[in-house]
Specification:
This protein is an alpha/beta fold. It folds into three domains: 65 residues, Roll (Archaeosine Trna-guanine Transglycosylase, Chain: A, domain 4), CATH 2.30.130; 100 residues, Transcription Regulator spoIIAA (2-Layer Sandwich); 208 residues, Vaccinia Virus protein VP39 (Rossmann fold), CATH 3.40.50.150. Helix content is 29%, strand content 31%. The strands form four sheets. The chain has a seven-stranded mixed sheet, with helices on both faces. It has a six-stranded mixed sheet with strand order 2-6-5-4-1-3. The chain has a five-stranded mixed sheet with strand order 7-8-9-10-11. Helix 10 crosses helix 11. The longest helix has 19 residues. The radius of gyration is 23 Å and the shape is globular. It binds S-adenosylmethionine. The site of S-adenosylmethionine has 20 residues, from helix 7, strand 15 and helix 9.
């Protein structure tokens, strides 16, 4: 490439941008650029200090998050070579930590050195989300590299997340390789089987980040009456019934998820002791206040109320309302599992909301367990925003 072109593909960082790069933060924002490169969405660009020394390379985006860093140092990376190397390393991490699991997250974006890629494996079917144009423009090559690293029967692109338009990418679900599974596929998840709809299920098909939680709380299930709020396809309730719960009441607004949950009961040969309340959990919990039903275990696993910093206050209100209503439904001596998957809502914020809610509900809480995202969804120690899933298991007593 002629040298003027090479120079044009350089972004010059200001002092605080350099500071972030030195701290190995993989995002460079527009506000940290002294000079914007002349390049197209998705191009591989170099970033330099103010004297022109190359500090690293990343994928360019015309949005506020301008560069997703791929490598540090002067040498221009071979993008597909780097992808292959990092996919192999990511898979080795899962082989080490999740041996024998049928479904797991193979690639967790920045934490696997592959910002803009999320890849979940369900058996031999890969469900892929690509949120950076720098990967999307080579999507066929990307799919081919995945197949070189592991045998796959299908690769499905599930690009439906927000912000895709900022990257100039369409929202779309499409088959990149193999055959689209005609039916939801049966996957062992923890100690039960679950049907996963790779084409139409939420996220990449299932919420893999909470798949290990039922095991952690299994001593609470035997004989318990369980309220599973935001139940999706019944993951918690299925485990509770399999471990001897007396009844599960599941609250979920998606009828499609409830239909699959019903089939999940059948394929596991579990007793029909799951009752569904389909609708908005806030309305249903308000109604339950007047019914005064009580449970031994209440599980709250809501969607992210605060994906970004601007929504923290409204998230706090939402979490608090759910927590107060949840506490009101727990028998004296029962337990509450409360999860938050909001990137911008810290562990301390969650604990403070739970404390406020406990005070309003006139209960006292002991922390039995703390929940983090699982090992196949690693957080980066240098990037607090990647530590998104937090939760507490609380023992609850009336005051
Ligand atoms: C984080 S997921 C729960 C995952 C689930 N616990 C599991 O183990 O698979 C949140 C779920 O809440 C549902 N949901 C979102 N908003 C809701 C609302 N206002 N009322 C009821 N359900 C809601 C979504 O359809 C989704 O299934």
């Amino acid at each position: 490439m002629p040298s003027e072109k090479r120079l044009a593909r350089r972004a010059v960082l200001d002092e605080s941008g350099l500071e972030r790069a030195r701290a190995m933060h993989p995002w460079i924002f527009r506000g940290n650029l002294r000079q914007i490169p002349q390049c197209a969405q998705g191009d591989l660009v170099a970033f330099t200090d103010m004297s022109g020394v190359i500090k690293g390379w990343g994928l360019w985006s015309d949005s506020a998050l301008s560069i997703r860093v791929l490598t540090y140092g002067t040498k221009e990376p071979d993008q597909m070579g780097l992808l292959r190397e990092r996919l192999t390393s990511a898979l080795n991490w899962r082989k080490l930590w999740c041996p024998g699991e049928e479904a797991f997250r193979w690639v967790h974006g920045e934490a696997d050195g592959l910002p803009g890629i999320i890849a979940d494996l369900y058996g031999d079917v890969l469900s892929l989300q690509v949120s950076a144009a720098g990967w999307y423009r080579h999507i066929d090559k990307v799919a081919a590299v995945f197949r070189k690293v592991r045998k796959l029967s299908a690769i499905v692109l599930r690009n439906e997340t927000k912000h895709l338009e900022k990257e100039g990418m369409p929202k779309e679900v499409k088959l990149l390789f193999g055959e689209m599974p005609k039916e939801p596929i049966k996957i062992k998840m923890g100690s039960v089987y679950e049907l996963v709809d790779i084409e139409k299920g939420q996220k990449t098909g299932a919420y893999l980040d909470v798949r290990g939680v039922p095991d952690m709380i299994s001593p609470l299930f035997k004989g318990a009456r369980v309220l599973d709020c935001f139940s999706y396809q019944g993951h918690f309730g299925l485990h509770a019934l399999a471990a001897g719960a007396s009844e599960v009441v599941a609250v979920e607004q998606s009828q499609q998820a409830i239909d699959i949950a019903q089939k999940n009961l059948e394929i596991n040969g579990l007793p029909r002791k799951m009752k569904w309340k389909c609708g908005n959990a806030f309305d249903i919990m308000r109604k339950m206040d007047s019914d005064r039903e009580r449970f031994d275990l209440v599980i709250m696993d809501p969607p992210p109320f605060s994906p970004a910093k601007g929504q923290v206050e409204s998230a706090r209100r939402g979490y608090k309302e759910l927590a107060v209503r949840g506490f009101n439904r727990i028998k004296d001596g029962g337990h509450m599992v409360f999860l938050s998957c909001s990137h911008a809502f810290s562990r301390e914020m969650l604990l403070s909301v739970l404390n406020d809610a406990a005070r309003d509900a006139c209960v006292s809480c002991r922390i039995a367990l703390e929940i983090h995202q699982p090992i196949d969804h690693p957080a980066l120690s240098s990037v607090p925003e990647t530590d998104y899933l937090k939760g507490f298991v609380l023992g609850v007593r009336d005051q």
